[in-house]
Model the fold of this input.
Amino acid sequence: PSFTTDVIVGFPGETDEEFQATLDACEFARFLKIHAFPFSPRSGTPAATMPDQVPKAVVQERFDRLIELQERVSWAENRTLEGREVEVLVAPGEGRKDGETARLSGRARDNRLVHFAVPDGAERPRPGDVVTVGVTYGAPHHLVADSGVQGGAYSVRRTRGGDAWASLQDAPVPGKPAV
Done:
């Protein structure tokens, strides 16, 4: 299993010791991802006028340390999957660079983003289908699975979700003339 968390850094009154405890907890928990936000006072909220506001420079320095820790943890955890097979639910538009890299993308069971290559002549999955691929590289924010083009694992399982996606591609669009 994998877990994510949300962290607000620099809430009024946060001490160096409390922030260090947050870092220690995040490193111990090995979160898949941390959604971190630097505290910023919002006009009209109780926190905006609380005593012991943490200076903006301190908040930024702590935020940067938390992000650096999470980058290191995520990268190390993703590297542990190199050489292992994962199932991926194929999704349209998950990978910003899919066109440039000739890959498709989707999410593993634990929600990690996976970019994978389709071997020449292999069945091409549709969004909604599930592929099994071998991870060739664990990056800080995603996995790369080029195993199929390197002679490793690659298989496609057609699903009802893929069938639904395919049927939508051929469906007439209301108000648009048929060609």
Observations:
- The chain has four helices and nine strands.
- The helical segments are 16-29, 56-79, 98-101, 160-170.
- The chain has a mean pLDDT of 92.
- Strands lie at 4-9, 33-38, 85-90, 103-108, 113-117, 130-134, 137-138, 143-145, 154-157.
